[in-house]
């Protein structure tokens, strides 16, 4: 078994930071547009909300990969299972081509 150092943990998790920062920025914008009424503002809110959903999925997948990389296999599998379960129960849930189903759940 490989020794997991603090540096290795930080390196694995550091890849999440830009995704989380972008999502936080979008969340602030969406929050400010919560009371939007104009067509332009509604379109902007929806566009940012959709991007947030994409980032949520990427963050979850990146988290699972990071946990796997540092040897927390059960945590990684739990995230993957939860994502698969959510997709199976919600055919409208976001999916990626990476699941082998060409974007279909």
Structural features, described:
This protein is mainly α. Helices cover 70% and strands 0% of the residues. The protein has four helices and no strands. It has helices spanning 6-14, 16-32, 39-69, 73-89. Helix 3 (39-69) packs antiparallel against helix 4 (73-89). It is elongated. Residues 96-105 have low confidence and may be disordered.
- Derived structural class: mainly alpha
Q: Globular, elongated, flat, extended or rod-shaped: what is the shape? A: elongated
Helix content: over 70%
Low-confidence stretches: 96-105
Features:
105 residues, mainly alpha, disordered C terminus
Compose a concise summary of this entry.
This protein has 105 residues and is an all-alpha fold.
Write the layout of secondary structure elements.
Layout: H1 6-14, H2 16-32, H3 39-69, H4 73-89
Helix pairs in contact: 2-3, 3-4
């Amino acid at each position: 078994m490989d020794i997991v150092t603090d540096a290795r943990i930080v390196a694995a998790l550091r890849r999440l930071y830009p995704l989380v920062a972008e999502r936080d920025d979008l969340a602030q914008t969406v929050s400010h547009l919560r009371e939007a009424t104009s067509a332009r503002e509604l379109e902007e809110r929806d566009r940012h909300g959709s991007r947030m959903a994409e980032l949520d999925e990427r963050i979850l997948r990146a988290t699972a990969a990071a946990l796997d990389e540092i040897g927390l296999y059960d945590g990684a599998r739990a995230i993957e299972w939860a994502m698969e379960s959510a997709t199976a129960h919600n055919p409208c849930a976001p999916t990626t081509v990476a699941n082998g189903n060409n974007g279909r759940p």
